[in-house]
């Protein structure tokens, strides 16, 4: 399985980079996983609704340009479906079973994802009703992908 994580912005925090690198290394025996960063749109702190939509649209264009045509797309969205680790594992297992070898997860920028990206998504996934920094979501996502492969292989994992 080929998994892409398309994410907005650069990761600066060393501790997050180290955690992500560790899980990517562990994932190497299960799947090919790549993280694709697209630049975030520079914007002032205070934005009108229209300006927020413009930022999401520009970031969305960059995201959409990185998605393979036949990829199954899972957008991380606060209003998406809540799933347990086992349910995520089942989703990945079913995709592999039915020949969807390319899966793309999308993590938006600080303002979230624009409408065009959400339309392109085959499903929307929420990790919580809480808001997390998008940089931290990278680490949480790669850990959950790793956990999903462990679950699907019947290997022990921390519950």
TrEMBL record:
<dbReference type="InterPro" id="IPR029028">
    <property type="entry name" value="Alpha/beta_knot_MTases"/>
</dbReference>
<keyword id="KW-0949">S-adenosyl-L-methionine</keyword>
<comment type="subunit">
    <text>Homodimer.</text>
</comment>
<dbReference type="Pfam" id="PF02590">
    <property type="entry name" value="SPOUT_MTase"/>
</dbReference>
<keyword id="KW-0698">rRNA processing</keyword>
<feature type="binding site">
    <location>
        <begin position="127"/>
        <end position="132"/>
    </location>
    <ligand>
        <name>S-adenosyl-L-methionine</name>
    </ligand>
</feature>
<keyword id="KW-0963">Cytoplasm</keyword>
<protein>
    <recommendedName>
        <fullName>Ribosomal RNA large subunit methyltransferase H</fullName>
        <ecNumber>2.1.1.177</ecNumber>
    </recommendedName>
</protein>
<dbReference type="GO" id="GO:0005737">
    <property type="term" value="C:cytoplasm"/>
</dbReference>
<keyword id="KW-0808">Transferase</keyword>
<comment type="similarity">
    <text>Belongs to the RNA methyltransferase RlmH family.</text>
</comment>
<keyword id="KW-0489">Methyltransferase</keyword>
<dbReference type="InterPro" id="IPR029026">
    <property type="entry name" value="tRNA_m1G_MTases_N"/>
</dbReference>
<dbReference type="GO" id="GO:0070038">
    <property type="term" value="F:rRNA (pseudouridine-N3-)-methyltransferase activity"/>
</dbReference>
<dbReference type="InterPro" id="IPR003742">
    <property type="entry name" value="RlmH-like"/>
</dbReference>
<feature type="binding site">
    <location>
        <position position="108"/>
    </location>
    <ligand>
        <name>S-adenosyl-L-methionine</name>
    </ligand>
</feature>
<feature type="binding site">
    <location>
        <position position="76"/>
    </location>
    <ligand>
        <name>S-adenosyl-L-methionine</name>
    </ligand>
</feature>
<comment type="function">
    <text>Specifically methylates the pseudouridine at position 1915 (m3Psi1915) in 23S rRNA.</text>
</comment>
């Amino acid at each position: 399985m080929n998994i892409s994580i398309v994410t907005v912005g650069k990761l600066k925090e060393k501790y997050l980079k180290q955690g992500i690198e560790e899980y990517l290394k562990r994932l190497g025996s299960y799947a090919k996983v790549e993280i694709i960063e697209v630049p975030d749109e520079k914007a002032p702190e205070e934005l009108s609704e229209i300006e927020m939509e413009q930022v999401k649209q520009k970031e969305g264009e960059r995201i959409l340009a990185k998605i393979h045509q036949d990829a199954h797309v899972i957008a991380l969205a606060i209003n998406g479906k809540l799933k347990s680790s086992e349910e995520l594992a089942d989703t990945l297992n079913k995709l592999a079973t039915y020949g969807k070898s390319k899966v793309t997860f999308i993590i938006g920028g600080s303002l979230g994802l624009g409408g065009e990206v959400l339309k392109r998504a085959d499903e929307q996934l929420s990790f919580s009703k809480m808001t997390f920094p998008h940089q931290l979501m990278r680490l949480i996502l790669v850990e959950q992908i790793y956990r999903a492969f462990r679950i699907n292989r019947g290997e022990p994992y921390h519950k």
